[in-house]
Amino acid sequence: MYQEDFKSGFVSIIGRPNVGKSTFLNRVIGQKIAIMSDKPQTTRNKVQGVYTTDDAQIIFIDTPGIHKPKHRLGDFMMKVATNALREVDAILFMVNVTEPRGAGDDFIIEKLKGLDTPIILVMNKIDMIHPDEIPAVIEQYKNQLDFAAYVPISALQGNNVEPLLKEIKKLLPEGPMYYPADQVTDHPERFIISELIREKVLHKTRDEVPHSIAVAIESIKKRENSEMVDVEAVIMVERDSQKGIVIGKKGAMLREIGTEARQDIEMLLGTKVYLNLWVKVQKDWRNKMGQLRDLGFRD
Ligand code: GDP
Ligand code: MG
Ligand code: K
Q1: Exposure string (b/e) for 148-169, b if CB count within 10 Å is 16 or more?
Q2: Ligand 1 atom at shortest distance from the alpha carbon of 26
Q3: ipTM of the assembly?
Q4: What tens digit of pLDDT does each residue of 35-45 get?
Q5: How far apart are alpha carbons 124 and 161 in whole angstroms?
Q6: Each residue's pLDDT tens digit, 64-75
Q7: How many beta carbons lie within 10 A of that of residue 188, not counting itself?
Q8: What's the predicted TM-score (pTM) here?
Q9: Which residue has a Cα nearest atom 18 of ligand 1?
Q10: How many CB atoms sit inside 10 A of residue 273's CB?
C-alpha cells in the first residue's frame, strides 16, 4: 500500500536500564505485542512493536547491547548494535529525570557521537519532579549531542506521550505502510505457536488422540518490566477419554507436552516463556464457525 504524504520509518529506543523503555513501548503499542516477528525490511533487528496512524507508521526496533561490554562477546555485540543505529530513521535516547547524568548515560552518548541519525532526548519520569526542574535536565545533556528535540514525558502516566509521537513523525521520511494497520491487535506468531503445541500433543500421545484436536491461543502477553512472555493455550479435544490421555497420570503427560512446547516457543520468540496449558472437552467444536476462525483452523 502506498499513500501520498504517508510517513514511515524505524525507531530505536536506547537508555540505561530502568529508565522506562519497556514502560514506554507498552504504553504506545499495548502489552499484547511487545514482541513481533522479523520482517525483511528490518534486517537483523527485532521489531518490538508497530504504531500506526492515518498518516504515519512508526516501527520500534530493538537494538540490544548498548551498554558497557563486560567481555569480548560484549564488544562484538556493541559493534552490531552501533551499526544498527546507523540504519534507523530516529533514535530515542531515554533518560531518567530523577537521576543525574551518569557513567551509563555518558557511555551511550559516546556511542551516539558521530552518527547522522537524528536523536530525541526523551526525559522520562517527569511525574516525579516539578516542571521547573526540567530546564536543568536539558542543561545536563544539551552540550553532549546535537538533539533534534527535547521531550519530557511520563511513560508510566502517559503525560506528553502524544507530542513525543508527533516529534518522531516529523523525523520520518515518506514511505510505505510496512505492516498492516491491524497488525498491532494480532500476534503473527499465534498460529505457529498453536501448531507447535498441537504437534507435541500428537507426537507425545503417539496419535492416541485424533488429528482433529485443536489448540486455541487465548493470550500472548509480555510481562511488565520483564522479558518473560506468558502464553495461555487451550488444547481442545472432543471426548473425556481423550482429555485423560492428554493430561496423563497426575498430569505427567501435559507437563511433558508443556515443557517441550515451551522450549520451541522460546526459540521462536527469542525470549523466556511461561506456558499455561489447559485441556478442554468441546463436543463438536468443529461445527462452531466463530471458534474455528479464532483458532485459525485449517484442515
Ligand atoms: P527499562 O529497563 O528501560 O525497560 O525500564 P522499565 O520500563 O522496565 O521501567 C523501570 C521502572 O521504572 C519500572 O518500575 C517502571 O514502573 C518505572 N517507570 C517507568 N516509567 C516511569 C515514569 O514515567 N514514571 C515513574 N514514576 N516510573 C516509571
Ligand atoms: Mg526493558
Ligand atoms: K523484547
Answers
A1: bbbbbbbbeeeebbeebbebbb
A2: 7
A3: 0.96
A4: 333 332 223 34
A5: 10
A6: 555 555 444 455
A7: 15
A8: 0.62
A9: 20
A10: 21
